[in-house]
């Protein structure tokens, strides 16, 4: 890594200074509309003490809104006197994607969450990933990266941490992350497995030994009053549990779910018109039909059935009414317990 060029991104805030600052990460982007133009990524830094650093990000995918709303609100309402460490807030991390309300960047098509570790001499999206990788992650202890389903998925509201490998260090790191998930106190909490972990922010942070927490809080390319409240309260209580903000977290019940293997994911083999027979939060049996997919071309054809590969709870579903081959139809997770098996005091 030592031979990489410095990042072209310049911060208008001083990450080491005490106090509250609002500024930008300035990423030069020369183009037809603006010869010496820049991408301007909003950033707030609130440092009130020598405690740990939390990196809070939204807009990693630009069509997911609970995180950005919670983080613009937090940057405005978090009082310096409350902060015992340092909070770095980036509500619109992939700013070009966020400004366009798209999952990926309209500049280079980049999916930021598949672009890590990034490149200082790469595309705009790769440059953002590289700055997070080499500048922001090393100064952070705890990372909360907000996600929701975006325009093509819908989720039960949950906070999550990943199942890490079996080494003692990784298991300790996993336990710290799960304790913060408990403190976040979303209605559901998930021990998560990824189907596509290469290039993710999560993977980059975890490989650096950081305590990484994420969410899926709804979807459909919008945000509800309920899911925004889950995001706002969860973020604040997680910061308290992490020792970054003073106060008492408010205990909230959560239902723990596990994603033990690839059978959780149901991928469409054929496209068509999707008719769900179950909704988010429904409990299903192994083999139960989750959805019917009607071919569009003519009437009189039997719809294709999508059967659940496991028993569990439906935590995610495809959002629009039409399906393409390869789309994720639904995710079914295993119920492992009704309430916090982990205490927030375990942090
Ligand atoms: Ca996402």
State the gist of this model:
The chain contains six helices and 19 strands. The chain is of the alpha+beta class and 347 residues long. The strands form two sheets. The protein has a 15-stranded mixed sheet that branches.
Fold and architecture overview:
There is one protein chain. With 347 residues, this protein is of the alpha+beta class. It folds into 2 domains: 10-258, Zn peptidases (Aminopeptidase); 262-335, RNA polymerase II/Efflux pump adaptor protein, barrel-sandwich hybrid domain (OB fold (Dihydrolipoamide Acetyltransferase, E2P)), CATH 2.40.50.100. The protein is built from 6 helices and 19 strands. The strands form 2 sheets. It has a 15-stranded mixed beta sheet that branches. Helix 1 (66-77) crosses helix 6 (225-241). Mean pLDDT is 95; it is low at 340-347. Bound molecules: calcium ion. The site of calcium ion (CA) has 4 residues, from loops.
- CATH homologous superfamily heading of the largest domain: Zn peptidases
Element order: H for helix, E for strand: EEEEHEHHEEEHEHEHEEEEEEEEE
The level-1 CATH class of the largest domain: Alpha Beta
Distance between the termini: 32 Å
- What share of residues are in beta strands? 25-35%
Alpha-carbon Rg, integer? 20 Å
Overall 3D geometry? globular
Q: Hetero groups bound?
A: calcium ion
* Secondary-structure class: alpha+beta
CATH architecture of the largest domain: 3-Layer(aba) Sandwich
Number of strands: 19
Rounded mean pLDDT score:
95
CATH topology call of the largest domain: Aminopeptidase
């Amino acid at each position: 890594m030592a031979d990489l060029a410095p990042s072209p991104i310049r911060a208008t805030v001083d990450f080491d200074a005490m106090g509250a600052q609002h500024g930008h990460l300035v990423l030069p982007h020369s183009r037809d509309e603006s010869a010496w133009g820049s991408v301007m990524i909003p950033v707030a830094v609130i440092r009130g003490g020598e405690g740990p650093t939390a990196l809070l990000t939204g807009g990693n995918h630009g069509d997911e809104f609970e995180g950005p709303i919670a983080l613009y609100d937090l940057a405005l309402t978090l009082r310096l006197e409350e902060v015992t460490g340092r909070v770095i807030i980036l509500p619109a991390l992939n700013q070009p994607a966020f400004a366009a309300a798209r999952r990926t960047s309209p500049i280079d098509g980049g999916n930021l969450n598949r672009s890590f570790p990034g490149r200082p001499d790469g595309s705009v999206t790769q440059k953002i990933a590289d700055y997070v990788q080499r500048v922001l992650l090393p100064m952070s202890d705890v990372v909360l990266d907000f996600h929701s389903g975006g325009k093509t998925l819908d989720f039960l509201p949950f906070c999550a941490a990943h199942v890490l490998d079996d080494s003692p260090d990784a298991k300790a790191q996993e336990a710290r992350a799960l304790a913060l998930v408990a403190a976040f106190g979303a209605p559901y909490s998930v021990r998560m497995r990824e189907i596509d972990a290469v290039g993710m922010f999560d993977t980059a942070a975890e490989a650096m030994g950081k305590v990484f927490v994420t969410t899926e809080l709804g979807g459909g390319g919008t945000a509800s009053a309920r899911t925004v409240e889950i995001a706002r309260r969860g973020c604040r209580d997680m910061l308290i549990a992490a020792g970054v903000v003073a106060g008492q977290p408010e205990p909230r019940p959560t239902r723990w779910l596990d994603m033990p293997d690839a059978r959780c994911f149901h991928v469409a083999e054929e496209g068509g018109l999707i008719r769900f027979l179950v909704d988010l939060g429904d409990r299903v049996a192994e083999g139960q039909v989750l959805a019917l997919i009607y071919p569009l071309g003519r009437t009189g054809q039997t719809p294709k059935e999508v059967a659940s590969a496991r028993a569990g709870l439906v935590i995610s579903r495809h959002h629009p009414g039409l399906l393409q081959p390869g789309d994720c139809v639904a995710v079914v997770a295993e119920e492992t317990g009704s309430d916090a098996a982990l205490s927030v005091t375990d942090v």
